[in-house]
């Protein structure tokens, strides 16, 4: 089994060599820090709106090196954060508008892949959420009974389910590399192998030179903590995935996964899965949730015990796959604000903006954030700029060692809650409710 190497998705398509590194000081109209999907979508829509803009994207490794090329491939309509937090800013109407905007963004992304000729294994068969205990069923409130779930996918112990049709499977590396290609095709310079060390009004500072621009946008998501002055803004939360060897037709028949809907459960330490285009199961979940002092992984390598934990989850869902080979394991980080809610922000007086904090629901939200940043930077008053995540502010995370101790304690509580619920608890465990209060969710 390969461990690391960024991700299985990148190993499939081939790791790109960083291109067009910055060479000395330059000036431009817009400097975007971060070559993941947030930065690339922002560049894409700004260049579309005003082709005369000189836009530079600055990326430490290569476009899509972070979560954009490592995720589970869920292009979903999930709200990127806490409805309660958004309601405090925009009321229930604001939450409804944000939810509708995220749902419409699934169509937008699929439409861009078609217009730009991006072959990203996109299949829109929805996502099947399953409950495997009475407590999970209470939280899910699904419309499918156990028999109806089994007719789609035979998940061991499933008692109910919910199918959300507004979700598509994608191949993450093919999507982000295709968007990067489209961005470059619009005249945007993507300076790879160019690590930004500081962001300030009018400038993004790198070891290769300083990019001066009246607009500087921070789009680093889980890597935000590595930027000077931003260590406690967003927590780099860790998520890990494994991918199996290709399943045989008999194995697919046994588990009944005939379609290409995505699959997730309602556990507090949840899992998420997809049937890949080449006939494997890619399954993800939490490993070590957080590394001390906001450190991140080394090229996606994850811990052996995390791999075994994900293997156990896979065989719990599908006992008939016990012993199946795992071909690849990897991990990445996602940005988590203190209230677990994303934000898009722009300060015209300073010329600084940012977007991120998607808490694991970023594959769709990045596109919506990019279009919102476009409108904010161009001074447009639109439905997007009035969404409740615009200008959303939240306090910073606690200093170390409180941050490390708190996050690890939090996930011990969630796992304890799952054990209590799996043992027969009929409602959500009070342990999980306590964990949610501690987390600020």
TrEMBL record:
This is NAD(P)/FAD-dependent oxidoreductase. Gene3D superfamilies: D-Amino Acid Oxidase, subunit A, domain 2 (3.30.9.10), FAD/NAD(P)-binding domain (3.50.50.60). Pfam families: DAO. PANTHER family: FAD DEPENDENT OXIDOREDUCTASE DOMAIN-CONTAINING PROTEIN, SARCOSINE DEHYDROGENASE-RELATED. Its EC number is 1.-.-.-. It is an enzyme of class 1 (oxidoreductase). InterPro entries: FAD-dep_OxRdtase (IPR006076), FAD/NAD-bd_sf (IPR036188). Keywords: Oxidoreductase. Residues 29-376 form the FAD dependent oxidoreductase domain. Signal peptide: none annotated. The keyword Repressor does not apply. GO terms for molecular function: oxidoreductase activity.
């Amino acid at each position: 089994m390969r461990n690391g190497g960024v991700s299985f998705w990148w190993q499939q398509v081939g790791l790109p060599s960083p291109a067009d590194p910055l060479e000395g000081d330059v000036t431009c109209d817009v400097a975007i820090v971060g070559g993941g999907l947030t930065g690339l979508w922002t560049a894409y829509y700004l260049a579309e709106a005003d082709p005369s803009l000189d836009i530079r994207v600055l990326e430490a490794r290569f476009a899509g090196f972070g979560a954009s090329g490592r995720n589970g491939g869920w292009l979903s309509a999930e709200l990127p954060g806490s409805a309660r937090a958004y309601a405090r800013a925009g009321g229930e109407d604001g939450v409804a508008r944000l939810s509708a905007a995220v749902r419409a963004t699934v169509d937008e992304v699929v439409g861009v892949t078609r217009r730009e000729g991006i072959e990203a294994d996109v299949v829109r068969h929805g996502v099947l959420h399953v409950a495997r205990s009475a407590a999970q069923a209470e939280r899910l409130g699904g419309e499918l009974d156990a028999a109806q779930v089994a007719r789609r996918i035979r998940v061991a112990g499933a008692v109910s389910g919910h199918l959300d049709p507004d979700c598509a499977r994608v191949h993450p590396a093919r999507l982000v590399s295709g968007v990067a290609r489209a961005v470059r095709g619009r005249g945007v310079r993507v300076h790879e192998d160019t690590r930004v060390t500081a962001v300030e009004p009018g400038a993004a500072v790198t070891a290769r030179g300083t990019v001066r621009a009246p607009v500087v946008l921070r789009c680093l998501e889980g890597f935000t903590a590595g930027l000077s002055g931003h260590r406690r803004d967003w927590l780099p939360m860790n998520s890990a995935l494994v991918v199996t060897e290709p399943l045989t037709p008999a194995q697919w028949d046994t588990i009944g996964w005939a379609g290409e809907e995505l699959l997730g459960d309602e556990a507090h330490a949840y899992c998420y899965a997809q049937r890949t285009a080449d006939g494997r199961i890619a399954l993800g979940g939490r490993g070590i949730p957080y590394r001390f002092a906001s450190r991140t992984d080394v090229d996606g390598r994850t811990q052996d015990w995390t791999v075994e934990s994900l293997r156990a989850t896979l065989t719990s869902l599908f006992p008939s796959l016990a012993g199946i080979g795992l071909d690849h394991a990897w991990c990445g980080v996602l940005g988590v604000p203190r209230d677990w809610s994303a934000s898009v922000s722009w300060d015209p007086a300073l010329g600084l903006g940012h977007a991120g904090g998607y808490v694991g629901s970023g594959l769709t939200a990045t596109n919506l954030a990019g279009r919102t940043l476009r409108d904010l930077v161009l001074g447009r008053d639109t439905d997007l700029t009035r969404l409740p995540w615009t200008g959303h502010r939240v306090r910073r995370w606690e200093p170390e060692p409180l941050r490390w101790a708190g996050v690890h304690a939090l996930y011990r509580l969630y796992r304890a809650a799952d054990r209590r619920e799996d043992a027969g608890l009929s409602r959500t465990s009070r342990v999980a409710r306590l964990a949610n209060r501690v987390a600020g969710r």
